[in-house]
Amino acid sequence: MPPPMKIVRIEMSALKTKVEGSHMTSTVDISSKESCIVRIFTDDGIFGVGDAQRPESPSAMCYLIRDVLAPLLLGRDPRDIEELWSSMYTVLRARGRTKGFTIEALSAVDIALWDILGKSLNAPVYRLLGGSCRATLRAYATEVMLGKPGPERLQDAQGYVNAGFGAFKVAAGINIDEDVAFIKQLRDRFGYTVDIAVDANCGLTYNSALRFAKSLERFEVMWLEEPMPPEFIDQYVELHRGTSTPIAAGESEFTVFGFKDWIGRNALDIVQPDVGRTGGISQLKKISDLSGAYGVEFAPHCGHGSAVTYSATAHVAKSSKNFKIFELEQLHNPLREQLVLRPMKPAQGGQISIRDEPGLDIELDEAFAKSCEVLSLSA
Ligand SMILES: [Mg+2]
Q1: Nearest to residue 276, comparing CAs of 251, 245, 243?
Q2: Rounded distance, CA 166 to CA 151, Å?
Q3: Protein residues with C-beta less than 5 angstroms from the ion ligand 1
């Protein structure tokens, strides 16, 4: 039997950074990126690192973890992840807090617990999730944004191809006729040698989404992402049935309980849960397994994420049989580029690899983290 281990302290750090360039989609335009970094310390010296995915108010996340989740964790064995996740979720569910900020806070804690488990067993986290399904992860570049002239957007796409990516994503959904014309320009330039994903960021109605999806069929896009708001699963079922363009969604959904409706009702070709929103590594793996059982592909959402959520996502992707492709943001994001000592960089062909180091192999740049810290709390 391994010796007992206890959680003795939890530190939360709210980070905020400005971003440059256009980050404009059909429904939002952002000018900052935020993180709530969680460090969970144990009585034998091991600590784990976690993060929620771009919580607009990282300070609120710090208070949530200190006041609601930390009392359920202190003194407990951090390796009992399933039981700890369940006990935290049970408290949150009692008042309907099964989505949004509360589950994002739970996500950050869960990621840190997996980091501790890996370090305690001297194993990379993907090994504990079933092992390796592939040597490297194929990645696509995010994203050709809206909010700039067509020639500049074409140049952005060319830049991703020049950098070695064989796939990239295009923001769309404000004017679908212009979007279709832009996709045609991309096909004219690159032929069918690159994969193109199209993201409408929930900006369309059912009728316009159906017209858009059918217009995209001849361009054989990799998928049409979040054409409509996530409240309308019935309309997704109809859309999925009515077009050969693959339909993807999931970055706005939470936990395997939320995804079972989408997957069980045959609403999607591809699920896109986000590790820092949907309940952490524990839930990301369950969602990948559930979708795999229904023949649905798994392309986890990562855009806007920090280096911590990128690493956590990569470990699940490496161990998931139905993994399709990895989202690697190429926009300015200091929390992806500067928060750790070894930021994720694609090799030629847009391939990502993970080092065989214990846990999630996250080494924070503490000086950088301190430079953009807006709140620090502990429990
Ligand atoms: Mg998206």
Answers
A1: 251
A2: 20
A3: 199, 225
Same domain, 290 and 206: yes
Residue 360 lies inside a defined structural domain of this protein:
no
Question: Which two structure tokens, joined as six digits, stand for 278?
Answer: 């949907």
Give the model's confidence band at 177: pLDDT under 50 very low, under 70 low, under 90 confident, else very high. very high
- CA–centroid distance, residue 312 to ligand 1 (Å): 18
Domain holding 199, by residue range, is: 127-352
Residue 173, CB-side half-sphere exposure with 13 Å CA sphere: 27
Tell me how far the alpha carbon of residue 25 lies from the centroid of ligand 1, in angstroms. 9
- Does residue 358 lie within any of the structural domains? no
- Residue 193 burial by Cβ neighbours in a 10 Å radius (0-12, 13-18, 19+): exposed
Mean pLDDT confidence for 83-110: 96
Which residues are CB-contacts of 285 (< 8 A; sequence separation ≥ 6)?
129, 316, 319, 320
* Pair (373, 330) in one structural domain: no
How far, in Å, from the CA of 63 to the mean position of ligand 1? Answer: 28
The model's pLDDT over 113-152, given as tens digits with 9 standing for 90+, comes to 999 999 999 999 999 999 999 999 999 999 999 989 999 9
Task: Determine the distance separating the centroid of ligand 1 and the alpha carbon of 349, expressed in angstroms.
Answer: 22
CATH number of the domain where residue 26 is located: 3.30.390.10
pTM of the model: 0.97
Greater model confidence, 350 or 137: 137
| Cα(100) to centroid(ligand 1), Å | 16
> pLDDT tens digits, residue range 20-47?
887 888 888 888 899 999 999 999 999 9
Residue 281 to residue 355: CA distance in whole angstroms: 18
| Tokens of residue 140, six digits | 């696509």
Decide if 357 is inside a domain. no
- Kindly give the distance from the C-alpha atom of residue 310 to the centroid of ligand 1, in angstroms, as a whole number: 15
Cα 251 to middle of ligand 1, angstroms: 7
Task: Decide if 2 is inside a domain.
Answer: no
Residue 314 Cα, ligand 1 centroid: separation in angstroms?
18
Q: How many domains does the chain have?
A: 2
**What CATH number corresponds to the domain at position 237?**
3.20.20.120
Tell me what the pLDDT averaged over the chain comes to.
95
Ligand 1 centre distance from Cα of residue 354 (Å): 24
Give me the pLDDT at residue 284, please.
98
